[in-house]
Specification:
This protein has helices spanning about 55-60, 75-85, 105-115, 150-155, 170-180, 195-210, 220; strands at about 5-15, 25-30, 70-75, 90-95, 115-120, 135-140, 160-165, 185-190, 215. The protein is α/β, with parallel strands linked by helices. It has a single domain (about 5-165), classed as Aldolase class I (TIM Barrel), CATH 3.20.20.
């Protein structure tokens, strides 16, 4: 039986800049493909899988700018690559793209057996297939171009809700979503869509009013990946 492979757009070590693990040294695995269609997405180069842009992993790692190129590896090959790169971090963030288009359980199982902790960042529009110990960050994307609904199963599995906001409508969308799925026991983060003052002030005010937390994409402020 062939092992599951994952289409990788980026793989790098940095600090997690968002949510509960802000400041945590982390290895990011950015997977290719996402049909959700968020207008403000800052990784639109991961949306499509173009067969002609498949390249070898060493060539992908040599890229020094955003690219639509991708490479394909299984869990064992990913772990081997971690060792080759001599990464120090023991926390792995699987993002995208939309990582839950893949069955992530084999990858997370393999990583956990090697002593890594795992985190998934997902839009909540695809079934989440992972291990019980994996930390799931659902950043619900409501009424996006792709037309994918937020899944009740994704909201139930979430360890944290991290919602991007720029307008009062985004806040209203989140409150409606939390009410619809009766979410009362999860930590909620608001994340300004940009570093613009208006969005940040809205997020701060709303967090104080609702006893939520603020996530400000620290990596963008300090200039790291």
């Amino acid at each position: 039986m062939m092992s599951i492979t994952y289409k990788i757009n980026e793989l790098f070590e940095t600090l997690q800049g968002e949510g509960s693990f802000t400041g945590q040294p982390s290895i990011f695995i950015r997977l290719q493909e996402c049909p959700v269609g968020c207008s403000w997405c800052d990784t639109k180069h991961t949306w499509e899988v173009k067969p002609e842009l498949k390249i070898e992993i060493n060539d992908l790692l040599a890229q020094n700018e955003e690219t639509e190129c991708w490479s394909e590896l299984n869990a064992e090959q990913i772990i081997t690559l971690f060792k080759k790169q001599e990464f120090n971090a023991k926390h792995v963030v699987i993002t995208g793209g939309e990582p839950c288009m893949y069955d992530l359980k084999p990858l997370c199982q393999a990583l956990e057996l090697q002593g890594f902790s795992c985190q998934i960042e997902t839009s909540g529009t695809f079934e989440i297939k992972t291990t019980d110990n994996c930390w799931v960050t659902v950043s619900p994307k409501v009424n996006m171009k792709g037309g994918y609904p937020i899944l009740a199963s994704a909201m139930a599995r979430a360890n944290e809700i991290k919602h991007p906001v720029a307008t009062e409508q985004h806040v209203d969308d989140l409150k409606a979503l939390l009410a619809k799925f009766n979410v009362t026991d999860k930590q909620v983060y608001l994340q300004p869509i940009s570093q613009k003052q208006r969005a940040t002030e809205l997020a701060i005010r709303t967090c104080i009013e609702n006893d939520w937390r603020l996530s400000v994409q620290v990596h963008k402020y300090i200039g790291i990946e």
